[in-house]
Amino acid sequence: MSESKIGVLVMSYGTPESLDQVEAYYTHIRRGNPPSPEQLKELTDRYDAIVGGFFPLRQHTNDQVANLQKKLNDQFPDRSFVCYQGLKHAAPFIEDGIDQMAADGITQAVGIVLAPHYSTMSVGSYIKRAKEQAAKHDLNIQFVESYHLQPELLTALVERVETALQKFQVDKSNVKVLFSAHSLPARILEMNDPYPQQLMETSEAIAARTGLANWQFSWQSAGQTGVPWLGPDILEDIERLVKEEGEKHLLICPIGFVSDHLEVLYDIDIECKQLAEELGAQLERTASLNSDPRYMQCLAEAIYEQLEG
Fold first, then answer.
1. Which is nearest to 5 in space by CA: 91, 127, 100?
2. Which residues bind Fe(2+) (predicted)?
3. Which of 13, 81, 198, 228 has its CA at 20 to 30 Å from residue 65's CA atom?
4. pTM for this structure?
């Protein structure tokens, strides 16, 4: 492969490709400790509830990587880009992506994570692994750390909020919008981690562009690890908003997630929706970005800007 080609390591969390891979996947997440039979059943039941035996989750990442490669080469014909996958908890792992670049003769690369907001515990951990593996091959690799205010990203999210608001038969001022993202252990607050601030900046930017006054940020999908996680949880927020504040129309915009994964299709579409129905409230969700052309443009521009310095 020509040395002029630029490798792009597209990193994400990873997901099992089928129900029979759930145990191995969660064993990797738990650093080699298999889930108990009870935990495994709960996890498998969640996947079964959203996919019914067919697994679309991994396909979203495959599509994003393929579409990003096309977008980069169409948009910036002065360069030649080849995209590689690197997953945190499933094959091809981050290290596999780096190894494949080296095997293909790539000498210059950029890494980007399919998550717009930086945290040392999320995006930072991906970058650390990629850097360590790249050093073994003397691969020159730079990284896009965050792109939470990238104009194309905000435009795509604003469009989704405006579209979803049309599902309500009330004025938008009567719809409570909850911007959400994956919770992380609360100790990140002591580390002056930028994650909460970046999420708030994205939320504020979308609210300003859509003229929203009735909104808040909510944490979701906290892990069960025995240490405090950032909260309160979105389920607690929904209960409080309906019971104590009288909100009857709720819209969730999961800005921390770019694909239809378990945290969206189960935690929001099943758990949150079920709770809202029990409380007599209407709850809707904005569509995920997945391979939206604007999101592909956002990633392509962030990568090119990183290359150009």
1. 100
2. 182, 263
3. 198
4. 0.95
Cβ burial of 251 (10 Å; 0-12, 13-18, 19+) is buried
Task: Report the CATH number at residue 46.
Answer: 3.40.50.1400
Task: Give residue-wise pLDDT tens across range 266-283.
Answer: 999 999 999 999 999 999
Q: Do 213 and 139 belong to one domain?
A: no
Q: Which residue numbers belong to the known binding site for Fe-coproporphyrin III?
A: 13, 30, 46-47, 126
**Binding-site entries for Fe(2+):** 182, 263
In the block, tokens 């738990």 appear at: 30
Q: Helix 123-136 to helix 94-103 angle, to the nearest 10 degrees?
A: 30
Same-domain check for residues 45 and 114 = yes
Q: What tens digit of pLDDT does each residue of 228-270 get?
A: 999 999 999 999 999 999 999 999 999 999 999 899 999 999 9
Binding residues: 13, 30, 46-47, 126, 182, 263
